[in-house]
Design brief:
Layout: H1 18-26, E1 42-44, H2 50-57, E2 64-68, H3 69-73, H4 80-84, E3 90-95, E4 98-104, E5 113-116, E6 119-120, E7 141-147, E8 162-167, E9 177-187, E10 192-205, E11 214-233, E12 238-239, E13 242-266, E14 273-300, E15 305-334, E16 338-371, E17 379-380, E18 392-420, E19 423-448, E20 457-458, E21 471-472, H5 474-482, H6 492-496, E22 500-517, E23 520-541, E24 544-568, E25 571-582, E26 593-596, E27 599-602, E28 610-622, E29 628-639, E30 642-646, E31 658-664, E32 667-680, E33 691-710, E34 713-719, E35 727-736, E36 740-749, E37 752-755, E38 766-768, E39 771-781, E40 786-793, E41 800-804, E42 810-815, E43 819-828
Length: about 850
């Protein structure tokens, strides 16, 4: 089956310096009293609302990280993923320099879950569970939280963490509130200007006998961002010190984001709360990729020249992702000690490519072709290499696709407050039903034996890494196939093998009890989840197409225990033991089978889900406004982890040279620690009392063993989890008063292994290099209501670099440039 492989990282070892962190924690002696509300462990993001977030930290039930709406507004972030990278334990996967997928404690997006207003967010991509949060504009968000330990009343389907997105409520403000922002940005890589406008309004109204009991809130955001990147990549095609092929790519991108939300809250005199939450987001991604690639007749080293087949190609497509979510629910107290809560939710995600050029290729043969640098292997050649007349049209491939992912859910919770041996206690129990349906449909056409000429090219290349040569005119390519009969060029295998329909129904029930024993709060409970999975697809076996269908049914009993012990007025020890279950992603359990001679690729719908026992320990102190220090340690024992493998030479694949699929491993483990520190230096004399500092880091490591057949021999190897960086860190230094504020933020992610080359050849593994992104933000309050902001993203012009085996050998190098933003915001409250 022709989907992207899932690879596993193998980063370098890191020694944990525990003693320094512990000494730093216990050096804090200035304590403040705390209320007796429910306590949660939270590690707060570096935001202007640090003090507010730290107070919410004292009213939580799980170990989590939080960032709030006003804090998001003070950071130079375009979407929810970029806002989340500021908090402890979180890093992001980037696409063209923009944050997309969120990784928690070194675990990739497919091992985490995203909810909006309490309902699951399905994934627009056909092969993933992880949600690309770049589809969600940050302006629509009231708060973002990453829940790292799960109580029984929460879905158990995350290993790293659950990202909870909450949208605006009128009860977040007193009376009428509205805000509007006009922003312009400049991208120096392509010298493009991009507009952005956003706004929100809320108010409370009195209906019936109540006073300010109905809240209405609305938000709207629009952005049209134009930018680009320059790239040179080999894909790791090194034979020792010699290179087999290299490619230069020029990207020109336009991304349009539209987001809207409309929320209603009703709080009657009876003490209940009822709400309707709606959210819509559309992300339109228009991309043009020009490429020139050289395949050398014989592998050659830098500085050498030789014969090569050169391909100039164009990819031009427009994809639109949409997410919509509707949640209605509420809670009501009755009989003094009982509370009932209920919610019904519907969410839908989709990704559609209505039709685009997935590859228009022109080819030519050239002599004296080479490259000069192993890290940036830009092609060097004679003048005829840059002459459009030397290339002949080979093929034009046209593709369209659509993926939909829908989820319906309903849940009911009951709470009973009571006294147990003179101690306050709460019994909570309930259940949830979730039904999910994911569909994918892809169509492909390949046009051959067409005529081409140098008129199909133009000379508008703006590639910065070296000489690029002529680029392909997408309008003329579309004209060539416009009058042709597409039925004659339809590609059956690629049009059918990735088509599927999957249904996943989950029924859950739980019970939990909370009791306060003086300084100790104890939460114990049990959750049950039953999963019914069905998948329908196709098998393509040497031109013969047959339908496939699979069913899988399993259940889990998931106990948990949370405790918090108050060591002193503002010092806390927190611990949790939880059990979670993560289902395979939709590439891993895909029902398609592709067989071509002695090569095969297929999914495994009968894979077992990952099962994890999680242990968390936290220690924290608070010592003033927006000031805290915390240390957290975690350990995860994982069964049935999933990895990509080759089954050739085993079972029914004995006579195959290649049989690529997925497999359950036995045991794996993940462990690490987090350290968080933030402080507002109010005790210093002016102007130093405006100083604000923050730092957090996560050190993590995972271990697992995989095996595969190679030349009739069973080989095994120790690996780490996908995309895991041993070290993730954030640092922030700022200063602000009532009129002015500046902030410098840094985000660091250490190297990680991106692709596993071969089980017996770790030297062919591909690593992602470490990255440091520096951002600057500032604001001036022109009046009580009017604020001017100036931000700079990626000050240091950080690039993206992957390497094969060692840093000396390129797998991919990409540059993005720096972005500058100027915004004017008006607030009324």
């Amino acid at each position: 089956m022709r989907h992207k492989k899932s690879y596993l990282p193998y980063p370098n070892k890191t020694q944990f310096q525990l003693s320094t962190l512990v000494v730093a924690m216990f050096s804090m002696t200035h304590l403040h009293a705390e209320d007796q509300a429910i306590e949660y462990v939270q590690v707060i993001g570096q935001v202007a609302s640090m003090d507010q977030a730290l107070k919410e930290q004292k009213r939580a039930d799980q170990i989590s990280s939080v960032v709030h709406a006003d804090g998001i507004g003070q950071l130079p972030d375009d979407n929810a993923a970029e806002a989340l990278q500021r908090i402890s334990g979180v890093s992001i996967e980037r696409d063209q320099g923009e944050g997309r997928f969120v990784s928690v404690r070194g675990l990739g997006a497919d091992l985490n879950t995203v909810t909006i207003n309490g309902t699951l967010v399905p994934a627009p991509e056909s092969d993933r569970r992880g949600v690309a949060l770049d589809v969600l504009p940050s302006e629509l968000v009231q708060s973002l939280a990453v829940i790292k330990t799960l109580t029984p009343d929460l879905d158990a389907n995350s290993l790293g963490g659950t990202v909870q997105v909450e949208s605006l409520s009128a009860f977040d403000h007193d009376g009428l509130f509205y805000t509007g922002t006009i922003e312009g940005s400049y991208e120096d890589k392509r010298e493009k200007y991009s507009p952005k406008i956003s706004g929100a309004i809320s108010n409370k109204f009195s209906i019936g006998d109540g006073q300010d009991n109905l809240g209405v809130a609305a938000a709207l955001s629009y952005q049209n961002r134009k930018f680009g990147s320059d790239n040179v990549e080999t894909g790791g095609s090194w034979d020792g010190k010699s290179l087999e092929e290299t490619a230069m790519r020029q990207y020109d991108i336009e991304r349009e984001r539209i987001g809207a939300g409309l929320n209603f809250d009703y709080r009657p005199n009876s003490g209940g709360e009822y709400y309707l939450r709606t959210l819509y987001s559309r992300f339109k991604d228009t991309e043009s990729r020009q490429e020139v690639a050289a395949t050398f007749a014989d592998p050659q080293q830098s500085g050498q020249r030789g014969d090569a087949e050169v391909t100039r190609s164009l990819k031009s497509r427009e994809e639109t992702q949409e997410i919509q979510s509707f949640v209605i629910g509420g809670k009501q107290n009755f009989a003094k000690t009982w509370t009932v809560e209920g919610q019904v939710g519907y969410s839908e995600a989709s990704e559609e490519n209505p039709g685009g050029i997935s590859g228009a290729k022109f080819k030519g043969d050239f002599a004296n072709v080479g490259f000069e640098s192993n890290q940036k292997p830009v092609i060097t050649a004679d003048q005829d290499f840059y002459n459009a007349e030397q290339y002949q049209l080979d093929t034009i491939t046209w593709e369209k696709s659509k993926t939909t992912d829908k989820e319906y859910n309903a849940k009911l919770d009951l709470l009973k407050d009571y006294m147990l041996a003179n101690y306050a206690a709460t019994l909570k129990f309930g259940g949830k039903i979730s039904q999910r349906e994911k569909n994918n449909d892809t169509e492909e056409w390949k046009y051959k034996k067409l005529t081409g000429s140098n008129a199909d090219f133009n000379q508008n290349s703006h590639y910065d890494l070296g000489l690029f040569g002529p680029t392909i005119d997408k309008g003329l390519i579309k004209d060539k196939i416009a009058e042709l009969d597409p039925k004659k060029y339809h590609v059956a295998d690629n049009s059918i093998i990735n088509d599927f329909k999957s249904n996943e129904d989950i029924q859950a029930a739980y019970v939990m009890n909370t009791i306060d024993l003086d300084r100790l709060r104890l939460i114990a409970g049990l959750r049950y989840e039953n999963t019914k999975f069905e998948a329908q697809g196709f098998e393509f076996n040497d031109e013969v197409i047959t339908a496939t269908k699979y069913k899988n049914d399993y259940d889990h009993w998931l106990p948990s225990l949370h405790l918090r012990y108050q060591l002193a007025d503002d010092a806390y020890l927190r611990a949790a033991w939880t059990n979670t279950v993560v289902r395979p992603n939709f590439a891993q359990n895909a029902p398609g089978i592709y067989i071509d001679g002695d090569e095969a690729e297929f999914g495994q719908p009968m894979l077992k889900p990952l099962e994890a026992s999680n242990f968390d320990l936290g220690l924290e102190r608070y010592f003033g406004k927006a000031s805290m220090v915390g240390f957290y340690a975690f350990y995860k024992n994982i069964d049935n982890f999933i990895y990509a493998t080759d089954l050739a030479g085993t079972g029914q694949w004995t006579d195959f040279d290649e049989a690529l699929t997925y497999k359950n491993g036995k045991k794996a483990k993940l462990y690490g620690m987090e350290f968080a520190y933030s402080q507002k230096f109010e005790h210093l004399k002016s102007p130093l009392n405006g100083l604000l500092m923050g730092f957090n880091t996560t050190l993590s490591k995972s271990e697992a063993n995989i095996d595969a057949m190679k030349d009739g021999e069973l080989l095994s190897r120790r690996i780490h989890f996908p995309s895991q960086s041993n070290v993730v860190a954030n640092a922030m230094l700022g200063w602000e008063n009532e009129n002015f504020g500046v902030r410098l933020s840094a985000h660091y992610k250490s190297n990680s292994l991106l692709e596993l080359g071969d089980i017996h050849a770790p030297e062919k593994d591909i690593y992602s290099d470490d990255q440091v992104f520096l951002d600057f933000s500032s604001h001036v309050n022109l009046s009580k209501n009017l604020q001017l902001k100036f931000d700079v993203q990626n000050i240091s012009n950080e690039n993206y670099y992957n390497y094969a085996g060692s840093k000396a050998y390129n797998a991919q190098y990409e540059e993005y440039g720096t972005a500058y933003k100027l915004a004017l915001t008006y607030n009324y409250f």
